[in-house]
Amino acid sequence: MTEVLLEARGISLGYPREQGWQSVLENFDLQLAPGEVITILGPSGVGKSSLLRVLAGLQQARAGSVSLLGEPLQGPHPRLAVAFQDPSLLPWLSLESNVAFGLDFARQPTLAASERRARIDHAIEAVGLQHAREQYPAQLSGGMAQRTALARCLARQPQVLLLDEPFGALDEVTRADMQQLLLQLIARHNTAAVLITHDIDEALLLSDRVLLLGNHPARTLGQWHIDLPQPREQRVEELGALRIDILKTLRRASRTPEPSSEPMPLPSETAHVPGRLHPHSS
């Protein structure tokens, strides 16, 4: 059986209101294997960022459970690293010190000075920023700042990367470069990743699986396994067909049925055909 690094079961999210509880997300399940990239895709307001915080141990779900390597996740864990759209670099620290700062986070193991130095050097080298290690955040471009945030994660040597639209604020060329860097680092370190995005193209380029959230309250509308090898930029025809398939599922689910009508069925089977997207309703 394939090892499961991170597992979520029956996650539900919501917030209290004067007249009761407002549900945002219901009954979400996920299993993440080593080396796998899963994208959670959906429009704004379906609870994607809140879900990522739950998976990171930073927020409690209304219902459900999260486990890491088979053990209940009770809070932030050194095997989990999180990167957000804002790099959140400390402006008074150099690039090198910002990368090192991740090693001081709560619950991180105490490291010998030599191991600490090796981790910092390796992380900075992995993202190609050796030449800028003494620069400060104000001197960095947007792409360099995101590389620094990624290096801060890598220095912790996590088994799981949790990424909340980390490239959303970058220009198209820089974003494409960062996407490829992410794939290279995941392959090199056998790290698994959960990526939150509303960008279908980004999901198709990066993911082994795509989970689509939608409706109110949100639920998993479908799951797709993508068999296409990397890199995928030149596979315009296949990716275009997959994009349309996801959009159709989202649009079909967003239609409001008449009171007497039956809900429109969603994809319910997985058929593994090479080079195709395989919808599977959860």
What does this structure look like?
With about 280 residues, the chain is of the alpha/beta class. The protein has a domain at about 1-75 and about 195-280: Rossmann fold, CATH 3.40.50. The chain has seven helices and eleven strands. It has helices at about 50-55, 95-100, 115-125, 140-155, 170-190, 200-205, 235-255, and strands spanning about 5-15, 20-30, 35-40, 65-70, 70, 80-85, 160-165, 190-195, 210-215, 220-225, 275-280. The strands form two sheets. A seven-stranded mixed beta sheet has the order 6-7-8-3-9-10-11, with helices on both faces. A four-stranded antiparallel beta sheet has the order 2-1-4-5, covered by helices on one side. The chain is globular. It starts with 5 loop residues before the first strand and ends with a strand. The model is unreliable at about 255-280 (pLDDT under 50).
What sequence of helices (H) and strands (E) makes up the elements?
A: EEEHEEEHHHEHEHEEHE
Count of individual beta strands: 11
Strand residues, percent: 25-35%
Oligomer: single chain
User: Low-confidence parts lasting 5 or more residues at pLDDT below 50?
Assistant: 256-282
**CATH architectural category of the domain at 1-75 and 193-282:** 3-Layer(aba) Sandwich
Q: What name does CATH use for the topology of the domain at 1-75 and 193-282?
A: Rossmann fold
Question: What Rg do the Cα atoms give?
Answer: 20 Å
What is the CATH homologous superfamily assignment of the domain at 1-75 and 193-282?
A: P-loop containing nucleotide triphosphate hydrolases
- Averaged pLDDT: 84
Sheet bearing the most strands, described? 7 strands, mixed
CATH class of the domain at 1-75 and 193-282: Alpha Beta
